[in-house]
Automatic annotation (TrEMBL):
Protein name as catalogued: STAS/SEC14 domain-containing protein
Pfam families in the cross-refs: SpoIIAA-like (PF11964)
Signal peptide: none
InterPro entries, per the entry: SpoIIAA-like, SpoIIAA-like_sf, STAS_dom_sf
Top-level lineage group: Bacteria
Length: 121
């Protein structure tokens, strides 16, 4: 499930995902990011994962999202991924090279620091 967080403003998209992530969730997420990338020089992303297992992510959606990241990597500003599992940290490190400013992983207990970091110049 995708939830848009109230911290979303200007060039920052703040989302929380939990339980399961399907193609429709990824489509909504990508459309929001694409809109920000069209309006601003860079789009910042705060991506919080709660109670999400790797098996909860649609394989098709994950591949489509990976392709989006490769195509639009230079349109990203800071990206903070917040999670609670080792595979989530691994995923952040895997996609970091295709993002203009990389990806920084934060533990769920550090979500306030992650939000402050992603908003910092």
């Amino acid at each position: 499930m995708l939830r848009i967080l109230p911290e979303t403003k200007e060039n920052l998209l703040a989302v929380q995902i939990s339980k399961e992530l399907r193609v429709a969730d990824f489509d909504q997420y990508r459309n929001l990011l694409r809109d920000l990338m069209g309006k601003y020089k860079e789009a910042r992303l705060y991506y919080e994962m709660i109670d999400l297992d790797l098996t909860d992510v649609s394989a098709v959606a994950a591949v489509e999202n990976g392709m989006f990241d490769v195509v639009h990597g230079l349109d990203y500003g800071r990206v903070a991924m917040v999670g609670e599992k080792k595979w989530q940290e691994w995923a952040a490190n895997l996609i970091s090279p295709v993002k203009k400013k990389g990806v920084r992983f934060f533990d769920l207990a550090e979500k306030e620091q992650a939000m402050a970091w992603v908003q910092d110049e």
